[in-house]
Amino acid sequence: SAAFIQPHLSWGRWTLIPGYRIDRYQVEATGTTREVLDAYGEPTRISLTRGTPSAGLVFDVVPERLSLAYNYAEAFRPPLFDEYFTQGAFSNCLSFFMPRLGPASNSCGALHDPQEAVNQEVVLSWRQPIAAIGGQMDFKFTHFWIDTDHLLESIREVSADEIAQPGAEKRRGNEIELSLRTARTYLSAAYSRMDGSVDPAGGILKPGDSAEDIARHPLYNAPANTLSLSAGWSISDDLELGIGHRMVASRLVTRQEAGHEVVHTHQAYRIWNASLNWALNDHLQMHLVGENLSNTRYHLPDGFGGGEGALAPGRNLQVKLTVRL
Q1: For position 206, what pLDDT does the model report?
Q2: Other residues' Cβ atoms within 10 Å of the Cβ of residue 131
């Protein structure tokens, strides 16, 4: 359960948006897992309450046209159920990793702390009406930085009498969005760039680690730099056509070769998408969507441990009918 408060306080061209959220979280093991934990006298129910503050400050440089904002937010992620109670080979709390302080059940349980993050961003927004074409231009630039501590997968013995999660991750990036709209058309462009690094162990060794294991690594799970372009036309009151082009830069991935993890580069790629929306009558609308029309071969950025990820779908067409009664 959760509750939050977020008032808006304005005076002149300034707006302050403080916030505070409180979460209550509880998980409980059942079945065989509960029996094992009971046998070792380890907790089967884990509860936590956590408060996270946030704040936003907006200055209207030119009212309704140009604004500058700063946003700050703290967040946390508690372990998932399986991260709390996994006992087999996938557990991070096996006695091999924790020979002195590890739990008898080999289940991390209450030893886990929530993963914590601090998100900050600076945003410049500009809105400009263009009377000559009866349209409007919108521009937004965002610079963000995200610092995450206590990475869940970094749990380990950090000393002879302490178990902790020393892992940390840093992300830095920029986003640019530009759009132009008129009564019948729209054009948009968006560019995102992010880099970062992850220190998986906070420089602290566990049994079996090498110097490479605790070095600061590239952020494999970060999306590649991407430029997206789109355009649309209202051909008539009943017919709309849209087209999109996405260009994705190369990114680092890992592969297993001959029993060793090797770093590779996933090549850059481009894909085309298109859509057609047709209102057949007042009650029936047809949507025709074509994705990856160039049938480009690429992998999704969802691989485990920095892997390439699943092979993305090839060229595909979808037809949807919407009925309004």
Answers
A1: 47
A2: 7
